Amino acid sequence: MLISGTAAQKAATSPTSSSSGAIHARPALCLSAQSGECKASVAAVNTKAHKKAKKSCATKARKHTKKCLAQARKKAAQARKKAKKKPDSTAGLNANSVSTRPAGYGPAQLRGAYNLPSAAARSQTIAIVTAYDSPNIEADLSVYSKTFSLPACTSSNGCFRKVNGAGAKTPLPSPNALWALETSLDVEAARAVCTNCTILLVEAESSSVNDLVAAVDTAAKLGADVISNSWVVNEFRGETSLDSHFNHPGIAITAASGDAGYGVKWPAASPYVTAVGGTTLDIDGSNTRVSETAWEQGSSGCSAYESKPTWQSDAGCAQRTVPDVAAVANPDTGAAVYDSYGYSGQRGWFKIGGTSLAAPIVAAIYALAGNADTVVAGSYPYAHATSLFDVSVGTNGTCSSSYLCSAAAGYDGPTGLGTPAGASAF
């Protein structure tokens, strides 16, 4: 769970560390953003809510049966009316799954909003790097695929593969509920955007940065075309010595910018990745993008330690500026995610945001474009910025160079160059 700090930039603050001195990352997912904080308080849609409502009505039945049922009918009618006005993830659901109505955007919404094809032109492997084991991920992906009528993606048909940080099938790391939810988000978001991509899940032994960067190297060795990272730490002295783990020419690597408002996180600050910021995305009933603004919790800023890449030219930051591009991240306009392992006493369908959502979306778009073998670090979108939606509204805090914390025409901190308008910028 990522809890936001102050709006002021804290680039050089100490990262999360254990008593042994190891630096530990945290997932950049977000289930709700209230009171200026990004909390993993559940926004799940499941049968428990319906059972609770039914029980409540039954409790009142003896004295207020007619009134209770009338109120229930009124609320149901209002919900149906609201659903007609505001799109949800039911577009593309198969007939047997419509009753579940998972809240949040589904494949049709994500692809429609960003003008994306549903499949890559040639074989592509998207690697998801995460920590700990997600025991039910293959089964959860199956539920997600069936719900949204996507082609099956299993280990038996060669579409899905799960390995440990060293690349072996066993032993797998110990499970962790929060990281399992992160894994479900990453895997399902990537699959939603690229429906014919192979998914390679690399599970690091722990959330330590050393284990995670080793897993990135493993993903590269196993032939990934694209690698997605939805984990973050605050910037720290010595981070540049680990950047080499992201230096894999011919592989597009994405990293979430973080969900703590203005301020820089690593590895998004690494010059070898495409750093992905967050937006609030609104679409209409036909899955067309209506508006998009900078998400106030998305992280951005000027790195304290990383040198400026040659492909960045913004004048207000002499170091590496984060992010490069952005995609939907606000949990209020988040994605439907299925996770049966359970987090915080809930399991089933969740509505999740965070730059943890944005990073695998952009990774999958790199796969759709199919030219990762020509990509040099995060430079490609800078040479194709006209193929992005320019986001010019919204802020994530206060800063001395206003563009680093406020969306503006052209490049800005919260949303970088902009959001996908097709796959041509990747």
Question: Which tags fit this structure?
Answer:
disordered N terminus; Rossmann fold; alpha/beta; 426 residues
- The third-level CATH topology is Rossmann fold
What proportion of the residues form beta strands (DSSP E)? 15-25%
Largest sheet: 8 strands, mixed
Q: How many alpha or pi helices?
A: 8
Could you say which overall geometry the principal axes of the C-alpha atoms support? globular
- The averaged pLDDT comes out at 86
- Following the backbone from N to C, one meets helices and strands in this order, namely EEEEHHHEHEHEHEEEEEEEEEEEHHEE
In the CATH hierarchy, the architecture is: 3-Layer(aba) Sandwich
| Percent range of helical residues | 10-25%
Q: Report the CATH C-level class.
A: Alpha Beta
Distance between the termini: 29 Å
Judged by helices, strands and strand pairing, the structural class is: alpha/beta
The quaternary organization reads as single chain
The structural domain count equals 1
Radius of gyration: 21 Å
Query: Low-confidence parts lasting 5 or more residues at pLDDT below 50?
Result: 1-14, 41-86, 94-99
The CATH homologous superfamily: Peptidase S8/S53 domain
Question: What's the total count of β strands?
Answer: 20
